[in-house]
Amino acid sequence: MANRKIIHVDMDAFYASVEQRDDPHLRGKPVVVAWRGKRSVVCAASYEARKFGVRSAMPAVQAERLCPDAVFVPPDFTRYRTVSRAVREIFLRHTDLVEPLSLDEAYLDVTENKSNLGSATEVAQTIRRQIRDEQNLTASAGVAPNKFLAKIASDWRKPDGLFVIKPADVLDLLTPLAVERIPGVGKVTARRLAQINIRTVGDIRALDLAELNRHFGRYGTRLNELASGIDNNPVEPNRPTQSISAEDTFETDVLLRETEPIIRRLAEKVWNASRKETRIPRTVVLKLKTAQFSILTRSLTPPVTPSSCEELIDTALALLAKVGRDPNQRYRLVGVGLSNFRDPAQSPNPLLFD
Prior knowledge:
By secondary structure, the chain is of the alpha+beta class. The protein has three domains: about 1-165, Alpha-Beta Plaits, CATH 3.30.70.270; about 170-225, DNA polymerase, domain 1, CATH 1.10.150.20; about 245-345, Dna Ligase, domain 1 (2-Layer Sandwich). Helices cover about 35% and strands about 20% of the residues. The chain has helices at about 15-20, 45-50, 60-65, 75-90, 120-135, 145-155, 170-175, 185-195, 200-205, 210-215, 220-225, 260-275, 310-320, and strands spanning about 5-10, 30-35, 45, 70-75, 100, 105-110, 140-145, 160-165, 245-255, 280-290, 295-300, 330-340. The strands form three sheets. The chain has a five-stranded mixed sheet with strand order 5-6-1-7-8. A hairpin with a 4-residue loop joins strand 10 (about 280-290) and strand 11. Helix 12 packs across helix 13. The longest helix has 16 residues, at about 75-90. The two termini are about 40 Å apart.
């Protein structure tokens, strides 16, 4: 749909910014939102901390080495959710088509806006101003004809920026970008692309589609579309749950056989969370991370979905028995999840959760 008007709004260093807003002593200082400890990871870093190379998902001990003067603040997700809901209320003044991606970012379809503003750019400017006035926080926004381009645009002038990609400028803007700017292109895919001398988005577009598909299967077609600025995915305001999971990182690495009590506890947590869903999960997933940071998963889609917490625990423990690694291998993290959600009518046992 070529005539869509999409905004991607991304709150700037959200968790850290909320902390700085609420505690004047933190303003202007390098703030790291994380629990202290060798197993903790960074939830967010203020822009003052980012100057030292501190980034989200970085081990907290590494952040402390990079920025010895950083102020560590434990995360307060209840407060962040409250702020996120207030920001979402601002979005909803302008359109009902809001697709939250997380607490700090969302897509908005403002092809038709409720505030009767003359352009998507005006809507984005108004939203940013309202967030600043009402929440004393800043947000960056991108305006574009589709979600993919809006996401790229919102990163263009962070923090506290607005960037608009007009249809006529799409190809010129995309051509020099690194392939990593495309969703789904991580380090592994980027290396595979580099092996066939593709390093920019323009390189992807120049390669024959059949050749792309030969190397990347159906994802080659998606790469080709995005490299041309094509993304027909709509904003989904009621995006259905794809998965529910819980995981735990250990203070000290443990042997596989020592993970059973943790798996039982995590499975119970996941089961309780799944009770809030009207859709039915079909697949049980077990995730492990070794002491060397390698991630491995085991999954099972049984003929009949687990109908109780005990059955979920039994399935997760059965997956544990299928790990098949060196018994002396140690692990730093374990997770349990439910995925492959389906509407009840699509499930082989639709009355299971009644």
